């Protein structure tokens, strides 16, 4: 193939589509080396130099399109130089040609072999002959993208152009209004500004960005690229702090805009100061610190109403102080400025400025901890020395302690706790310890005190453990021993002992742990419980592990231990197993065979109370869960055959072993026996607790069972057996059937449908209807303590629909027991499912509210309504005329004796006020009048709800009522 | 609202803890009479017109300065302005009145007065607050109603 003829070219120039197709074809041919770009340009000469503007535009367009379609490495530097000269000459052409030239230039600068020296020529011509801002939006985007590419790839050449390039760039950007272009500019400029010398043009450069600050922009909803205001603002902020030369102007800009009334402007200004603190060196910012502090002080001291502004301002201040901390002289200057204002207000807790002052003081500590913490602690120390330490609870002291503990904490975070002045710390800590030891005094009445001072003192001590002197530690240990052996006081100091244990294990052991353990037997139950709860957190520290473990084991397993000592020990064991991780528990089991010991304990101790058995079962299942599958399976086959489930202790053991057994362990060998035994127990026992355990176990068992023919026939057999019992009117059988159904429904077995049909039929039974309604509650409700690992996807929805269909006709006639059963099901149905079916369910719910039924059902129905109203549901909005009178009726004590219902109705009325005003106004007068009755309710909680609802209704449509 | 704040650094006090719910209160068959604390709970969260603080935090209202007789259907409240020439005293009193008007059953006769000896024009303010017609007229005033609604639409 040869160079395209003039004819081909003329054809190509006729339309845009043809032009693009031809350009792609030519580019392919050029890349293939069929002819060179010079040949093409020569052939195209007639169009490029035509006197007709239209034709020139089309010709240039074609050439640019070809360049655009070419791969970057086809043209050599000579050809590129030639093309650059051509395009720079064309820049003088008619403005109609410009778009085509821009496309071409953009393609050229992206070529790999473009000679670097052509770039300055190209740019100079560009700046000289055109102005960027007179181009269309799309062309400007191309220009900015070109600048972006050039600044990254031709840095040395551009630096040589010095002011010319900067000036050209500033002129091009100046006046840009399109957010999409601004987004490009703001993205690449920070990098550029930080790397190029700005010469005398720094202020001009700053000004082109400053004029956009703070950004005010509302993106249109249809915009697919969706540039948000916040994204633009963030990028702009980076531009404004890109060079240290900007420091002076940035600060005055931020301070000026901080004065604005607009929250957005305030937040942007504060963020600008924050970024300035991050980017600029302390030396650059120091001259303007006074100005910044004045501005921030106005926002933080006493502080504006807007929590966001306050938070950000404090953050910016902290950042400023933190970055200054690198240079001590500057930091001390800042700190003395800030602390000078704040410290005087720290000594009176009753002053309005106390809280703002503490917030700022804490920021100072987080900036330069050693310097500020000393000053602040000293202020507190002086003040504390003037307040007498007395028995009376001192609000001031408590507040001081809380702040002191935060100061300590911040100092520790900055690793400067040990750098603080001991002359201040020691007396301060003495004061705190003295406050803690108040409770050792004889006249201390622990029953009356609320111990807040002691709690506050403990919180300080927790933080200052590393800087306590030895004498102080001795006093602390003494106080701890007193506290733990005190007959009434129950203070939580776990954190303190953990911190002490980590730093001084030997001391803690001899002065605290040993004393607790040595005298353990003589302590009362209350003290023993305290000791357990305070020692267990120390367990992970290796120094104490064995000692504490020994204590617990001894108390659990020594046969001579009496109740309630064992119960306490079992509680401790339970906590221990729950707090430790898997590795620890597995090791413990391997070393001491804890499982076996516990089972033996349960089986061999006569008359162990049910509460203890419960704890043993919990401990067993916790251990089982942590063991590997093979071991779980071995344990089950070892112990299960020997258990007699009709006996309480052994039933509990079975629950411990099987309750949380992994679902992959097949129980097929024992399945039949377990089903029979548990069914027998449930039908014959009178002990509700034991029956509950049997039910839970059965439910979990059928849920986990393998889907085999044998297993299912076993279950069918039991169901059949239960049906027989039901025929003779046995309520327990109905209950048990419900539990079986629950396990089956959750796992999605077919047998569930059969049971549900039976239960539905029972709703019409003369004596068993109530039990049948309750059965639906059992099936639908969630039991967190029950392990149902096999869960069919969306089973709740499926269950709901099954029930809907089964009860459908009865529900439309509002039969009482059917309604009850259905309300139970609704309680557990996910909100989204109810919403999908609200058209059918709505009338039912309203009917329930009108019917004078049981309080429990009304509460459930009101709660469901409340979920809808909270989301401002449209269906409920359309039926407010029905709901509001029902609720008003339910809120009256005369008609509704159950206070929970009255409260729920009032809460619903309150939530209704969130609907738009125009919907509510027609009801306003009726509601406010009718609610007056509830204000005089005999129950205070109802009155409180009524006050809340009535006040909210008064504000509906009132001036500034929101 | 005036642009200049009269008392820039008032004393601020702690809030009392939320009332604990007793077993009796949860029992349907026991009646709970109105008491001081309940009235105090109604008005303690009213906002001060000048500061973002509640009347309780400024000690403008205090539980001890409330007296109530459930049987005789009367409530008497004294409130203490932060400074003796506080121009907001009437507004605060009005806010307390309106809040109680909306929150107490109509059987109560409510009296709101300035604590004796704590305000320069105590007598005049008390007279205004006791005048039912004036209170009603004040609520007709759109601007005044707006300020009052802002004060009593407490967050809690």
Automatic annotation (TrEMBL), chain A:
InterPro entries: ARM-like, ARM-type_fold, MMS19, MMS19_C, MMS19_N
Domain (MMS19 N-terminal) ranges: 42-301
Job of this protein: Key component of the cytosolic iron-sulfur protein assembly (CIA) complex, a multiprotein complex that mediates the incorporation of iron-sulfur cluster into apoproteins specifically involved in DNA metabolism and genomic integrity. In the CIA complex, MMS19 acts as an adapter between early-acting CIA components and a subset of cellular target iron-sulfur proteins.
Entry's family note: Belongs to the MET18/MMS19 family.
Organism of origin: Drosophila navojoa (Fruit fly)
Keyword list, A-Z: Cytoplasm, Cytoskeleton, DNA damage, DNA repair, Nucleus, Repeat
Occurrences of domain MMS19 C-terminal (ranges): 593-912
SUPFAM superfamilies (alphabetical): ARM repeat (SSF48371)
Record carries keyword Isomerase: no
GO biological process: DNA repair; iron-sulfur cluster assembly; protein maturation
Alphabetical list of Pfam families matching this protein: MMS19_C, MMS19_N
UniProt name for this protein: MMS19 nucleotide excision repair protein
Presence of the UniProt keyword Cytoplasm in the record: yes
GO-annotated cellular components: cytosolic [4Fe-4S] assembly targeting complex; nucleus; spindle
Oligomer and partners: Component of the CIA complex.
Location of the protein in the cell: Cytoplasm, Cytoskeleton, Spindle; Nucleus
The organism's place on the tree of life at top rank: Eukaryota
UniProtKB/TrEMBL annotation, chain B:
InterPro entries for this protein: FSCA_dom_sf, MIP18, MIP18-like
Domain of life: Eukaryota
One GO process term, biological-process aspect: chromosome segregation
Family: Belongs to the MIP18 family.
PANTHER family assigned: CYTOSOLIC IRON-SULFUR ASSEMBLY COMPONENT 2B (PTHR12377:SF0), CYTOSOLIC IRON-SULFUR ASSEMBLY COMPONENT 2B-RELATED (PTHR12377)
A Gene Ontology term for the protein's cellular component: cytosolic [4Fe-4S] assembly targeting complex
Protein name (record): MIP18 family-like domain-containing protein
Keywords on record: Chromosome partition
Domain MIP18 family-like: start-end pairs: 36-114
Pfam families per the UniProt record, alphabetical: FeS_assembly_P (PF01883)
Transport is among the record's keywords: no
Keyword Signal: no
